[in-house]
């Protein structure tokens, strides 16, 4: 198992699942003087640990950009500690993530795991790569610990 820390540039906000993510992405970009080209494949959203523990899946708690080595730190830089993450990929967008979270919760319940931090959710394939919605792919990662 690898235990690698990752730097994120994070903006906390309550974002509805139904909301278009373009506006929060632009706010993050403007607030931190970022070049939007750097966002390709590195933007994600998260649900707070508290909401995961309570199984409240109606909104995201933050939007973030993964920083690469050499990227400058900014006001909202956050270091995500390495650890154990349950990971699931599904066909669809962030708006269709709820069934995937439920499937992950069922697995966690069977194994005696509980969320240990905010989820990470990435669009791996979306409109930036294809116009075919059947090919959209999203990945969810939930840090966990054993009860």
From TrEMBL:
Pfam families: GyrI-like. Residues 4-145 form the AraC effector-binding domain. Signal peptide: none annotated. This is AraC effector-binding domain-containing protein. It comes from Paenibacillus apis.
């Amino acid at each position: 198992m690898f235990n690698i820390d990752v730097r994120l540039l994070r903006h906390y906000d309550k974002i509805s699942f139904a909301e278009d993510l373009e506006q929060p992405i632009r706010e993050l970009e403007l607030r931190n003087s970022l070049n939007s080209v750097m966002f390709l494949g590195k933007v994600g959203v998260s649900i707070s640990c508290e909401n995961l523990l309570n199984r409240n899946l109606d909104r995201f708690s933050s939007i973030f950009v993964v920083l690469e080595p050499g990227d400058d730190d900014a006001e909202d830089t956050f270091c995500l500690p390495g650890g154990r993450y349950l990971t699931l990929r599904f066909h669809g967008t962030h708006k269709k993530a709820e069934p995937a979270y439920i499937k992950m919760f069922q697995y966690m319940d069977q194994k005696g795991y509980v969320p240990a931090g905010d989820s990470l959710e990435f669009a791996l394939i979306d409109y930036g790569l294809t116009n075919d919605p059947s090919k959209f792919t999203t990945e969810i990662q939930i840090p966990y610990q054993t009860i």
